[in-house]
Specification:
Elements (H helix, E strand, L loop, with lengths): L6 E6 L7 E8 L5 E6 L13 E3 L2 E7 L6 E3 L5 E6 L6
Antiparallel strand pairs: 1-2, 1-7, 2-3, 3-5, 4-5, 5-6, 6-7
Length: about 90
Amino acid sequence: MIHNGDWVTVYPHGKPEQSAVGIVSLISSNQRSIAVDFADKPPFISIREGALIGPDGIMMLAFREAVGPWVEMLHGGHYEIEETDGPAD
């Protein structure tokens, strides 16, 4: 189960080679809505297409049904979001 403040790996569905590590700013109690902050621009986000800029960098907002990939709210892309230990140093 993902919690606020957890580190997560995010990548486009089926493309783990484009992964980026972020931190969960907020996740709903039913685990179906999430806001993830990235300190650096993830490889899968194009600034020209629009992105949310949060206090800690770029923010991704997503939702999902009970099962299946997360759906990014601005452009509708499908993503996997998985718990991780944090960024590699």
